[in-house]
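Recall the central idea of this unit: under ordinary conditions, the amino acid sequence of a chain determines the structure it adopts. In this exercise we apply that idea directly, starting from the sequence alone.
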Amino acid sequence: MAKQKGIIKLTGKIGDLSFYKTKDGYLAREKGGVDGERIKNDPAFARTRENGSEFGLAATAGKTLRDAFRPLMMRAADSRITSRLTKVMSSIRKLDTTSARGDRSVGVAIQNQAAKDMLKGFNFNIRSMLNAILYRPITLDPSSGEIEIEDLVPVNHIAAPANATHVSFTAAWGNVNFADGTYELALSNPSNIEIDSTQSTVAVTPTAPPSGSGTDVYILLVEFFQEINGTQYSLNDGGYNALNIVDVV
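Accordingly, the structure predicted from this sequence is:
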């Protein structure tokens, strides 16, 4: 892969060269590689097929998690969320110590505490990470999904973007079954407060526990708003919002 330079940027194909545009700029690459049918059938590429299978399983697990929390991701997620989450899932599936090579999956690995710890703390929006905008401890009650932030003084404990007048907190509790791709999501009502010097304790609790036999994933959404003439508007289409996995049980 090579970057295109110069004033004129190309897209399309010229001979064995392909020119295309990505988020990293205009790139070019030469056609090559092994024939697809050979990869599918040649015993010499058994490891390649196994790696491809496990990568697909990791990507599917990432999609399951994204689908489960999509209502929140629509308000706080970056453009590379898919690749970043797939990378985490690829690391997690390696902790599956019982399945055969090529079949190791997140659905099995997530039963291990080490796998859950790898998912804990994941930020859906790399542009606004929770530990970079909120400077107060968070406590979680796994039995109810309640997330609490004690003695919060917004002007002192929140790194709010310019022009933000209010901040909102929403707790989410998802039961995600990585083995079969099913999930259920429960959300709290948002707690919306003014960004001032008033001290308060924020507590947000999902309306009801989600059903299912999967893995419990607890998430906190922090949203910023600007109030104009009594109406609150999301800043930068959610670009400043944080969405973080608080715990995985």
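The longest helix spans residues 46-68.
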